[in-house]
Q: What sequence folds into this?
C-alpha cells in the first residue's frame, strides 16, 4: 500500500494528519503499554525490550500497534504510530526478518504520511518552523522534510495526492496570503 492509498482508505485530506485516526480507519488497533501490561500480564521491561517507543504485531488476523504513552512527547508518539502503520501496510510483519532496510522504509513512509512533500510544496511551505507547526512533527523531522522538498523528484502519485488535498491547499494559501 502506498502513502496515497493510506490517505484514500483513511479519508485523509488535510494537515496535520492524525495517525491515531488513520490507524483506526485502516482497522489497526492501538493499545498503550499500560493496557498491554494489564491485559497480557507482561511487564514494562518486557515491552521495553521489544521497543522503547512502540511496536506492531498481528493478533487474530488484525494489526495491533502498541505505543508507550509515557516515554516520549506527543510529536514522537505520532511518528511512532505512523512508523508502525508503515510496518503494517508495507507487509513487514509477515516477513521472517525485519531488518534495517524495513526500518528505513517505515521511517520514510511515516515521514511522507505525516508531512507530504507535494502538499507542502503546493502550499508554499518551505521553512522548518512552518513545516513543524503545520504537520505536528519535531523540528528535527521538519528539517529532514524541508531538505526532501528540494531533493525529491515528483512521482506520478503526487498529482492524486495534490487533488485529494486540494481543498486544504486552497484554504491554506488563502489564509496565508
A:
Amino acid at each position: 500500500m502506498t502513502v496515497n492509498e493510506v490517505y484514500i482508505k483513511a479519508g485523509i485530506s488535510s494537515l496535520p494528519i492524525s495517525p491515531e485516526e488513520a490507524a483506526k480507519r485502516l482497522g489497526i488497533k492501538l493499545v498503550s503499554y499500560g493496557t498491554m501490561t494489564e491485559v497480557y500480564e507482561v511487564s514494562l521491561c518486557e515491552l521495553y525490550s521489544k521497543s522503547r517507543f512502540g511496536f506492531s504485531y498481528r493478533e487474530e488476523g488484525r494489526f495491533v500497534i502498541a505505543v508507550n504513552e509515557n516515554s516520549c512527547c506527543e510529536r514522537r508518539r505520532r511518528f511512532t504510530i505512523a512508523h508502525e502503520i508503515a510496518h503494517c501496510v508495507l507487509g513487514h510483519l509477515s516477513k521472517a526478518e525485519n531488518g534495517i532496510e524495513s526500518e528505513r522504509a517505515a521511517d520514510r513512509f511515516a515521514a511522507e504520511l505525516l508531512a507530504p512533500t507535494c502538499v507542502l510544496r503546493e502550499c508554499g511551505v518551505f521553512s522548518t518552523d512552518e513545516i513543524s507547526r503545520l504537520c505536528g512533527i519535531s523540528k528535527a523531522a521538519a528539517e529532514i522534510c524541508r531538505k526532501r522538498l528540494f531533493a525529491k523528484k515528483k512521482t506520478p502519485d503526487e498529482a492524486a495526492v495534490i487533488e485529494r488535498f486540494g481543498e486544504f491547499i486552497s484554504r491554506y494559501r488563502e489564509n496565508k496570503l
